[in-house]
Amino acid sequence: MSQQVAPRPADPFAKLRARTPARIGLGRVGQALPTAPMLDFQLAHARARDAVHAALDVDQVRAAIAGPAIAVRSAAPDRAAYLQDPDLGRRLAEDAPPLRKGAYDVALVLADGLSATAVHAWGPRVAAAVCERLVGWTLAPVVVASQGRVAIGDPIGEDLGARAVVVLIGERPGLSANDSLSAYLTWNPRRGRRDGERNCVSNIRSPGGLSPEDAADRIVWLLGEARRLGFSGVALKDRGTARSLNLLK
After folding, report:
1. Please, are residues 68 and 142 in contact by the beta-carbon 8 Å criterion?
2. N- to C-terminal Cα distance for the chain?
3. Separation CA 122–CA 111 (nearest Å)
4. Rg of the chain over all Cα atoms, to the nearest angstrom
5. What are the φ and ψ backbone dihedral angles of 243, each rounded to 5 degrees?
6. Phi and psi (nearest 5°) for 107?
């Protein structure tokens, strides 16, 4: 008579794991993780490192943007200097060609930040969705900034004479996502602005985050409120729109 094998107990974490990218209930073999979760962790870590060190393909991004696009670079001479001295990424290079000042309402900047991967994946799509929604606003030529950080939008917006600047920038990669984009909005951009004077829309990626279209709804709502109030930052509370807050779903 053959011996019956007891059925394996149901995975108590299966339903929860299906609802989050977080690594939970991975199990163990002795004092270590099972092989599959360990290999998955190492792959995610490698992808995050690659995203941080990836070079922004300026020509590819400019080609994906409808309309004129200007290429600039920060004061960081290379990626190593950019990562070691964050302040270099906040300033335009001294030999950068001057930006032509105009009577613009909004300037859009695409900067690599800590994930050029995110900019390649979502930057032009978010920029296009924002421009489509800014009916009646005067838009400056899109600026593509290599080795740039969030604050590089301040000198760009100031030099262009824009009333507001929106910087679309690659977020610091994590073990759940290496292609997440953020948008930072600053009203009346100028050199020396502080982070508390900006509004942020983060985790723009699909699936797993805010879709480019919903992100554009939120960004345009913030721009409208900033124009109405005359400022951006912590005093401007993000109530978003029905669509961007998923109230219609």
Report:
1. yes
2. 57
3. 12
4. 21
5. -70, -45
6. -115, 130
- Residues 17 and 202: their CA atoms lie apart, in Å, by 23
CB-based contact 153:186 (threshold 8 Å) = yes
Q: How would you write the pLDDT of the chain (249 residues) with one tens digit per residue? A: 566 766 766 778 888 877 877 888 888 888 888 888 889 888 988 988 888 888 899 999 999 998 889 999 999 999 999 999 999 999 999 988 889 999 999 999 999 999 999 999 999 999 999 999 999 999 999 999 999 999 999 999 999 999 999 999 999 988 878 899 999 999 999 999 999 999 999 999 998 899 999 999 999 999 999 999 999 999 898 765 544 444 333
Its pTM stands at: 0.85
Domains in the chain, please, with CATH?
73-229 (3.40.50.11240)
